[in-house]
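subagent[fold] <- orchestrator: predict structure for attached chain, return tokens only, no commentary.
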Amino acid sequence: MSAGGQYVPRMMIFPRARMSDVLMTGAPAGCIGAVSPSGWTGSNLFVTWLKHFVSATKATKENQQILMSDGHHSYKTIEAVTYARDHGVHITLPPHCTHKMQPLDRTFFKPFKASYNRAADSWMVSHPGKRISMYDIASIFSEAYVHTANLARAENGFRVCGLWPVNELIFTEDDFAAAELTDEPLPTAAISTCDDALQNAERITGNTAMPGSLELECVTDTTIASTASPTASSGISREAPADKTVSSVAYETASMDAMKSSVSAQVEPMPHPGLAEARRILQELSPRPRLQKARTRTRKTEGATLLTSSPYKNYLEEKQQQKRKCKETAKTGPTKKKAKKERCKLNSRSRSCGSAGDNTPCIICSKRFNEPPFEDWIQRRQCQGWYHESCGPDDIDICYQCQ
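subagent[fold] -> orchestrator:
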């Protein structure tokens, strides 16, 4: 969908070996169908969809289009990049941002899923005792798609992502709080604001007593003065000890007033710490959980880039040349490591089967060779790593460990 409310007709992928026109019965107008063994997209299917996108949007070098996509590896092929550059299509999106910057994820997929579930429920009510087959999916999809794809949802999707109209302030600091889990621990402050105020008071008075001692002396002197004031205000004659007590109290009160005035003159009022200081104090009192041990990555880290740019195209060409050199030097086809189908019987002393001692880990799922599932393993010639046949990619030329 576009920021102007236009929708490109869908491409439906079915988990089959061969495509049949019957599968598209009842599909929305303009939709195309494709098949793949797993039902997921691939590099070849993305090029097919890219041609469909260019045909629907009339994209040319004079009428250029920006395609906001995710970081799937099927988009990062030299065939897709070359075709997009020749037809004025720019493919870009920063990695790990689809939950915030992909309009389809923000406003379309959730209501579409709810509409599809309602349409499927209605179909089952209308066809009691029958199951939904692949030949019924297109018609059910059409009913849900027509109900969901509207102008307001498309415009709102681009607006909440800050893509159009462009809004660089659409995200706040709270949106990036989840990323602090993998950040390095921040240095803690040497001393807090309360400790600074206490040290200033001790430095001025020269007293290292408890913080409440000064206030206690002031309260005690004030109480004595107020207690003695009725006696002083009345006309009753005073004895010598009473005069001595009143004079000493008056002297102490005057000295304390002078001390208070000197302290108030030297100590300036502390400004409000502000929101940043309050967040720092909260972070010290209740810190967010952080990752203590760095995680091992099986794929190469990539940053935000324009996939159709010249530097990225040169990078893909160099990568393709390296793969060709590896194919020329390596033997044809990967070697397979056959796993024994029988399960190992556990005893209190030892394992009975021979594969119990082979604990080679899978580079994808990290499970050992002697642990289920028991299936064929494949070894890459370039990195010498082993992985389950079901864990590996559809394209045998792609190695997660090497990337």
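orchestrator: received. Logging for downstream: The CA atoms of residues 339 and 375 lie 6 Å apart. The mean pLDDT is 75.
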